[in-house]
């Protein structure tokens, strides 16, 4: 008897951290289009940190000995979750439905007094500039192929001004992307750490050439939008041989184009790197970008947890912020804000079962992968032969790996001789989690010896 199973679940946990003090301070890191603002605040026990969109955090307890705080997460003054958070760590906090990250907080330190805790958190700026619709031309690309690299030059227009940028891509690096899983949250494509250097290089060069052409910094995001909109449409089936094959930004730029998913991921990555609040807006069979905008903007937007994400179509030029194509205007859309990177675990297992007439034995081969965009810390793997009685198992095994799992890293583990009495029904259940993740749980069908 043999069995094979795999699974992938969004395992982000609600994470938050606190910062000591009674004052509200802020530091500003300049980004291309606006200010990426990092706030710090000192809170006493029972103190409340008010965030955007009617969300808040209340300090329930401070424990200097364990270097931790116990926090209450609230919306409209009502508690919807609690958690213990430790110092020197940044936590992602989800919305009331537990679906998407809405902000992140870092627990900086707990002073000796133990009566206060220091927190820091980040806000994502909104675009505010209204611009006209510029009917840009399709990006023209020149390609020079060398032995180990290709050089691609992109040319596009915005406001009757021609822009051009040139990048050199390593073909071996491109080939390595083909081995990476596509079965991950879309936000991980946007926040992919292996694309960070390339994305930052692009936004930096675009800012430089935009300012040299006389454009103010608030208009640079629109120049970036025009660049992505003007990239040619390349279907997944043509370029990858699959009907649905979301690409990392590196791959889309390497190809010089992509479909709606690819261009939306690329634009979200560019705007996010510039410090703007962005979301991916998914319709049945289509995807666009939501850009966090100020209330002075006009146009169509999606309200997510009190934040306005103005829609932006990424395929074909001429689409302004806040204009939804007619064929999608009446469809229900899923809005997925892109915030801090986080790990995402995937568990796969296979195995064989054998018995001696009295007892059945299962041998398992387990593979745990991190298909997220941040390191998974202190991964634990728990395996069991589960009983039909709730919360009961016939046999189990736990391993604390004490290992961190890099993005796209894997842990492979073998377990032998998990036992169950002959004739009893059981199923294999595997759980994996880390100190900064939730739990990924997969299981087999019910069976017996």
**Residues in helix, %:** 10-25%
Instruction: Measure the end-to-end span.
Output: 9 Å
Number of helices: 7
- Provide the spatial order of strands within the biggest beta sheet: 2-3-10-9-8
The chain-level mean pLDDT equals 84
Q: What is the C-alpha radius of gyration, as a whole number of Å? A: 25 Å
Strand content: 35-45%
Largest sheet: 5 strands, antiparallel
* Total beta strand runs: 25
List unreliable stretches of 5+ residues: 2-35, 238-242
Structural class based on helices, strands and sheet pairing: mainly beta
General shape: globular
Report what the structure shows.
- The protein has 449 residues and is mostly beta strands.
- It has helices at 171-177, 186-190, 196-212, 220-229, 236-239, 249-255, 260-273, and strands at residues 2-8, 24-30, 35-44, 48-50, 55-63, 68-75, 78-86, 89-94, 101-109, 116-123, 140-145, 149-158, 161-170, 278-283, 286-292, 301-304, 307-312, 334-338, 345-355, 359-370, 380-386, 393-400, 410-421, 427-433, 439-443.
- A five-stranded antiparallel sheet has the order 2-3-10-9-8, with no helix packed on it. The chain has a five-stranded antiparallel sheet with strand order 16-17-15-14-18. Strands 1-19-20-23 form a four-stranded antiparallel sheet, with no helix packed on it.
- Helix 3 (196-212) packs across helix 7 (260-273) and helix 4 (220-229) runs antiparallel to helix 7 (260-273).
- The radius of gyration is 25 Å and the shape is globular.
- Mean pLDDT is 84; it is low at 2-35 and 238-242.
């Amino acid at each position: 008897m043999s069995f094979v199973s795999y699974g992938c679940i969004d395992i982000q946990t609600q994470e938050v951290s606190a910062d000591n003090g009674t004052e509200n301070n802020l530091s500003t890191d300049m980004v291309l289009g606006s200010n990426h603002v990092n706030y710090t605040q000192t809170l006493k026990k029972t103190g409340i940190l008010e965030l955007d969109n009617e969300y808040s955090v209340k300090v329930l307890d401070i424990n200097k000995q364990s270097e931790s705080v116990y926090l209450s997460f609230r919306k409209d003054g009502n508690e919807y979750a609690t958690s213990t958070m430790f110092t020197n760590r940044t936590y992602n906090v989800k919305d009331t439905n537990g679906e998407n990250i809405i902000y992140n907080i870092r627990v900086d330190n707990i002073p000796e007094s133990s009566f206060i805790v220091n927190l820091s958190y980040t806000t994502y700026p909104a675009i505010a500039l209204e611009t006209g619709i510029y009917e840009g031309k399709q990006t023209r690309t020149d390609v020079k192929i060398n032995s180990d690299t290709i050089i691609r030059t992109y040319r596009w227009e915005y406001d009757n001004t021609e822009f051009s940028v040139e990048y050199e891509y390593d073909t071996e690096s491109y080939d390595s992307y083909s081995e990476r899983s596509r079965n991950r949250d879309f936000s991980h494509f946007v926040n992919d750490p292996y694309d960070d250097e390339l994305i930052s290089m692009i936004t930096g060069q675009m800012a430089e050439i935009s300012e040299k052409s006389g454009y103010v910094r608030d208009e640079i995001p629109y120049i970036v939008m025009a660049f992505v909109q003007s990239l040619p449409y390349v279907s997944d089936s043509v370029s990858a041989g699959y009907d649905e094959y979301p690409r990392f930004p590196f791959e889309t730029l390497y190809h010089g184009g992509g479909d709606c998913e690819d261009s939306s991921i690329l634009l979200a990555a560019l705007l996010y790197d510039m410090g703007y609040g962005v979301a991916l807006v998914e319709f049945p069979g289509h995807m666009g970008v939501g850009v966090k905008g100020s209330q002075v903007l006009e146009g169509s937007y999606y309200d997510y947890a009190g934040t306005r994400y103005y829609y932006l179509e990424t395929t074909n030029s001429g689409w302004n912020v806040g204009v939804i194509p007619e064929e999608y205007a009446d469809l229900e859309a899923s809005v997925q804000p892109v915030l801090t990177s986080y790990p995402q675990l995937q568990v796969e297992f296979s195995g064989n079962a054998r018995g001696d007439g009295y007892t059945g034995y299962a041998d398992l081969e387990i593979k745990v992968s991190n298909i997220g965009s941040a390191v998974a810390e202190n991964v634990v793997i728990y395996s069991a032969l589960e009983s039909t009685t709730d919360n009961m198992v016939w046999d189990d095994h736990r391993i604390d790996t004490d290992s961190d799992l890099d993005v796209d890293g894997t842990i492979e583990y073998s377990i032998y001789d998990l036992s169950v009495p002959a004739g009893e029904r059981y199923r294999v259940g595997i759980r994996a989690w880390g100190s900064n993740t939730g739990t990924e749980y997969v299981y087999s069908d019910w069976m017996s010896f």
